[in-house]
Amino acid sequence: MTKTPEQFYDSIAGEFDALMNPYDLQRRLEVVFEDLLGGRTLTGLTVLDAGCGTGPFTLAARRRGARVTSVDIGIELLRRARDKGAERPVAGDAAALPFADASFDLVISSECIEHTAQPDRTVTDLLRVLRPGGTLVLTCPNRTWRWSVTIANALNLRPYRGLENWPSWWMLRRWVQAHGGTPTRHVGIHAFPFILTVTHPILRRLDQLGTVLGPAYVNQGLVAVKGRPE
Question: Exposed, middle or buried, 51 (CB in 10 Å: 0-12/13-18/19+)?
Answer without folding.
Answer: buried
